[in-house]
Amino acid sequence: MKPEVKANYKQADMISEQLAMIMKTLLVKRIDSSFHAFKMSLRRYHDANKAMVKMFENDRIYIAPKIGVNEFINSDNEAELIKILEESIDPNHIRQLTKDDFRPGFYEGLLHDQKILDELVAKWENVTQDPKLDELVRRLKSEFYSKEINNQSKLVLFSESKETTLYLYDELKKRGFTKLLAVDSENVRDLVSVIAENFDANHNAMLQKDDYSMIITTEVLAEGVNLHRSNIIINYDIPWNATRLMQRIGRVNRVGTKSPSIFIYNFFPTAQADNDIALNKKAYVKLQAFHSALGEDSQIYTEDEEYSSFGLFDRIPEEERDERLVFLSELRKFRDQNPEQFRKIQNMPQRARVGRKEKTRDQSTLCYLKNNRRDSFYFCNADDSFNELTFVEAARIFEAKVTEKGLPIHAKHYDHINLALEVFKTEMFIKSLGDRASVKLGPNEKNAIAFIGSTMQYDFVTDDEKKLLELVKLAIRRGRFQKLPRDVNKLIKKIKQEKTNRVDQFHLLMKIVKAYPIAIDDMDEPDNGNQRKPKETQLPEIIISESFGA
What we know:
Elements: H1 3-6, H2 12-33, H3 35-58, E1 61-63, H4 69-74, H5 78-87, E2 95-97, H6 106-125, H7 131-144, E3 155-158, H8 162-174, E4 180-183, H9 192-199, E5 214-217, E6 232-235, H10 243-249, E7 263-266, H11 271-277, H12 279-294, H13 324-337, H14 339-346, E8 352-357, E9 364-370, E10 375-380, E11 386-389, H15 391-398, H16 413-427, H17 443-455, H18 463-477, H19 483-498, H20 502-513, E12 541-549
Parallel strand pairs: 3-5, 3-6, 4-5, 6-7, 8-12
Antiparallel strand pairs: 1-2, 9-10, 9-12, 10-11
C-alpha cells in the first residue's frame, strides 16, 4: 500500500513479515506431515493469491478480515460479497480500495507470484507417489500388528493435521485395511462410547468390542481418554510442542493395560525439512529436559535420550544450565517464608505496570502477555524493534532488589504494549485444537466437584480464583486428569480427620489445583440447567509490564 493508505493499519509491515515467516514454516511442517496436506495448503495459498489478482483486475480490492473475501471472489460471487459488506455492523473494519492505493509494481508482483503458484500446483498434481505412506503400510503388514509386540492387535496413530488423518483413513481403506476409526474435533463427541468400547481397558469387560483395531486421530485424543487396550503409538508427524508426545503416550501407558511393554514409533522429519524448522532438535532438547528434571523412566522420542535423573546437567557448560529451576526455587522459598506478602502479590490487579531505572535499557519495555492457549514475554526496544524472550531471559530482567524504587513509565510504554499485543495476536495464527470429550462421572468425580463448588462460596475467594475453580470442575467432568479427583478426595478425608479451618482448606485445594495445567478448553457446555459456561477467548491479557529509563 501507499504510505498514506497504510497509515490506517498499525504495524502492517511488521505483521506481514511475521506472517511470511509463519507461512513458510507451516508449509514446511505440512509437507513433512504428508504430501496430501501440503498440496491442500499450497492450493489454498494459490487460490488466495488468485483472488487478489482478480480484485486488481476488477479495480476493487476488499479488505475485510472477518469475511471470507477470497471464496466470494474465486466463485465469481462478488454481488453477494458486496451485499454482505454493506450489511456489516462493523464498517470500520471493511474497506474497498483501488489499484491507485497500491505502489507501482505490486500488481505485477502478484502476477509473477501467480505464475509460480500455477506451476507449483500443476507439478504437485502429477505427484502420485507417497513413500511415507508406503513405509507405514509396509510396517503395518510386517511389524505393527505382530503378536510378539502387539498382543491386543490394536494401535493408535497420531497426526497434527486433520487432512493427513482423513487422507490416511481413505488410503489405508483402499489398501485393504479394515476396522479403521478416524477421529477429529468434528466427530469426537459422537464417538465417545465407540472409543471406550474398543480401546479402553478399564471399560466394562462385558461391553468391550473389537469393531475397530486402529484409531487414526488428531491431538483431540491426546488428553483425557483411555486407549490402553492398545500398546502401540505411531506418531506420523512430530508436534511443535514436545509435551504432546508425552500426552499421546499417556493414552496407552496407563494402569490396567494387559500389555507388558509400550512401543512408540516416530516418523522423524526429513533432513531437509529439519534444516528449516529444527523440529528434531527442539523435541529432543525439550524431552531430555523433562527426563533430567523429573526423572522419567523411559525413552519417548529417540534411543539417544538419557533418562537417569539430572544426567543432562552434568554434561553441559555451567552457563547453559536450566536456570528455570533456580528461579522457581526462589519463588517457592519466598512463598513459604512470606505467605501474606505472596498472597498480596497474587491478588495484584492484572495490567500492573512500573517504571525502572536502567541506563542500558533506556526507553525499552518488557511485558508478559497471556491467554488461555499460550503466554509470551516481549522486550520492545527504543527503536520499536522487539524480541520474544524465554522465561529465563525475562526473569533475569524482571529480577529486582528489594531496595529498588519504581519510576514513572516513559512516553513510549503504551506504544510498546500495543506492539506486543499485535505480535501476540499474529502468532496466534498457529493454535492448537481444544475439543474434548465428556466422560461419565463416578463417585470420586462427583464428590470432588461438590467440594470445589462449596469452597468457591467462601467470602475470601477472589473472582479470578473462582474462575479457575470453575475450570477445574469442567476438567473433572471431561476426565482430563484422572488423578485430580482422587487428590481432591484425599484432601476431603484429611480435612475431616484433622478438622482444618476454611482458609487452610482453601490453600490446600489451590495447591492441588496448581499442580495441573488447567486451561479454558471448549467452554461451551452449561454448568447446570440455568447457567452457561463462558466461551473461550483468544484475546491476550497484559499480566505485567515494565518500562526502563535512564
